[in-house]
Amino acid sequence: MPETDNYFSIPKAAKHCSISRVTLWRWVRSGKLKAFLTPGGQYRIRKEDLDLFISGKMGHLPQADFLKEKKILIVDDDSGVQKLLIRMVSTNGFRAEVASDGFEAGVKTAQFKPDLIVLDLYMPGMDGFEVCKQIKENSNTSHIKILAITGYDTKENKDRILEAGADGYLVKPVERKTLLQNIDDLLKGEV
């Protein structure tokens, strides 16, 4: 049976839930999560069964919207910041990718189609102000929420990035709870 949007293999279901394959496999083997065996000996999980399981058994996880996996693009030239932010968002059920500069941010925005971009203001080449402006002026990407983060907190920087179209603004170092709350609010349209 071909894998479609209505059926998940163990690896695809694990990725969908942002958990390990081993954990998902245990749920299937224990009978907690309904699955069936194909004639070729592969397990498949129906989308409806996975969605029911997620909403029932995994609904307690904070701020995770597993049924509609949200994608976040992290744009920062500091690899340490990238790793920290990736860890913060991916452990909360978001799918994340990174870009190290403004040019790469444009390419990844077109390919990855994020729901939200966490955007550093100062990077080599094209800075965050220009990235934000270009994304918000393009009718294909203007719907994407942009959360600007910076270590250079000034009234001028804040006013300038909000004027360029950013939907939110945070100062580095940002606490995990604050970041996730801002992301959640922006994705729900509460900001």
From TrEMBL:
Q: GO biological process: what's one of them?
A: phosphorelay signal transduction system
InterPro entries linked: Bact_response_regulator (IPR050595), CheY-like_superfamily (IPR011006), DNA-bd_dom_put_sf (IPR009061), HTH_17 (IPR041657), Sig_transdc_resp-reg_receiver (IPR001789), SinI_DNA-bd (IPR010093)
Q: Which residues carry this modification: 4-aspartylphosphate?
A: D120
Species name for this entry?
Answer: Candidatus Desulfatibia vada
- The protein depicted here goes by the name Response regulator
Response regulatory domain segment(s): 71-187
One of the Pfam families matching this protein, by short name: HTH_17
Task: Tell me the superkingdom of the source.
Answer: Bacteria
One of the entry's Gene Ontology molecular-function terms is: DNA binding
* SMART domains, A to Z: REC
Among PANTHER family, the record links this protein to: RESPONSE REGULATORY DOMAIN-CONTAINING PROTEIN, STRESS RESPONSE REGULATOR PROTEIN 1
| Signal peptide (from-to) | none
**What are the protein's UniProt keywords?**
Phosphoprotein
